[in-house]
Design a protein that fits this description.
The strands form five sheets. Strands 3, 5, 6, 18, 21, 22 and 24 form a seven-stranded antiparallel β-sheet that branches. Strands 4-17-23-19-20 form a five-stranded antiparallel β-sheet, with no helix packed on it. A five-stranded antiparallel β-sheet has the order 7-9-14-11-12, with no helix packed on it. It contains one helix and 24 strands. It is about 15% helix and about 50% strand.
Length: about 350
């Protein structure tokens, strides 16, 4: 009996005896050959899909930086700081949209209720290592942008000069320093009592999150002791809370349709968080990629990429919804999609 050259399949002569085992061996060779071919085609398709997604993502990132956004086929991008069409349930904050389900309103009058002083700011002249920072613990029932609070106390033996301190805001839940800056206290007289030293900040505090605020001296030019003061008239803050449900929707039209697509969300949740839902033509999606990035303004956020590996009709609808837990909040910085 003869056999084919490539797959060793039997080729019976007229005089050959036909055996069941020969048939089984031939079928096994066919099965193995078809399997190898299918796996190879699948690997090639996966590699081509990955390259296509990478190219589409890079194109999306490039054009999203162009102002105004250029006309594109099969691409949409929405910067929520300048365009909120199709988005509801939000408050605009610093170039983004926000939703937060705070328990209680925080005001300058009740802010001190949520502040615990751990240590005062102690200054020991000419002994910087002996000085101790002012330490405050803060936990708020709603999200707040804090812009000023006040300290005060007594001091002596001031010979003049600069009295800088470093102000830090540390998120104890993550261990990250979320804001820091240098502040000159500006005490000029030789001694006395000061009832108002303004500590100016620009920091967003999530609800139900433990924060530590430190004022650490960088020079020791006098003796003194300073405490946090409950001073509503001089405290500056903004409280942000609503029903905690944000929705966004966008209809894309591409006459020829597409073989797939990519949806990209840049966002950040805080506090007790919540639930994010994404859908494409009502079909729920789970993120294929989740990573932490810094945008061009230095804002830290999550980038979520959702992939659709199936045909997209000429008219297609993308949707996003975030539902905050009590004490949770959510920022949406931008979102968009690319058809493949």
């Amino acid at each position: 009996m003869n056999y084919t050259e490539n797959y060793h399949l039997p080729q019976w002569e007229e005089t050959d005896r036909v055996m069941r085992t020969d048939f089984n061996d031939a079928m096994l060779h066919i099965e193995e050959g078809l399997t190898v071919r299918r796996e190879g085609e699948s690997a090639l398709r996966g590699e081509a899909w990955n390259r296509l997604c990478r190219t589409a993502y890079n194109h999306y990132c490039a054009v999203s930086r162009i102002e105004p956004f250029p006309r594109q086929l099969g691409v949409f991008y929405q910067n929520t700081g300048t365009n909120t069409s199709g988005i509801s349930g939000t408050i605009g904050i610093d170039g983004a949209v926000f939703a937060g389900k705070g328990r209680l309103q925080v005001t300058a009058s009740n802010f001190a209720d949520y502040v615990e002083q751990v240590t005062p700011l102690k200054m020991v002249k000419n002994k910087l290592s002996a000085c101790t920072p002012l330490e405050l613990h803060v936990r708020l029932p709603a999200a707040v942008k804090l812009m000023r609070f006040v300290i005060g106390g007594t001091y002596s033996n001031n010979a003049g000069g600069s009295d800088p301190c470093r102000v830090c805001v540390i998120n104890q839940d993550t261990g990250e320093t979320e804001w820091e800056n240098e502040k000159v206290l500006g005490i000029t007289s030789s001694g006395g009592t000061t009832f108002r030293l303004d500590i100016d900040l620009n920091v967003f505090l999530h609800a139900e999150t433990d924060y530590t605020i430190l004022i650490r001296p960088l020079a020791a030019i006098y003796d003194g002791s300073f405490d946090y003061l409950n001073a509503p008239s001089y405290t500056i803050l903004s409280c942000y809370r609503n029903n905690g449900v944000m929705t966004a929707s966008r209809t894309m039209t591409e006459p020829e349709g597409s073989t797939g697509g990519m949806m990209i969300l840049r966002c950040q949740s805080g506090g007790t968080g919540g639930t994010l839902e994404a859908a494409w033509d009502k079909e729920p999606l789970e993120p294929s990629v989740t990573r932490t990035i810094l945008d061009d303004r230095g804002r830290k956020m999550q980038e979520l990429i959702f992939l659709r590996d199936k045909p997209v009709p000429p008219e297609t609808v993308l949707e996003m919804k975030f539902t905050c837990n009590e004490g949770g909040d959510f920022f949406l910085y931008d979102w968009g999609a690319v058809l493949l």
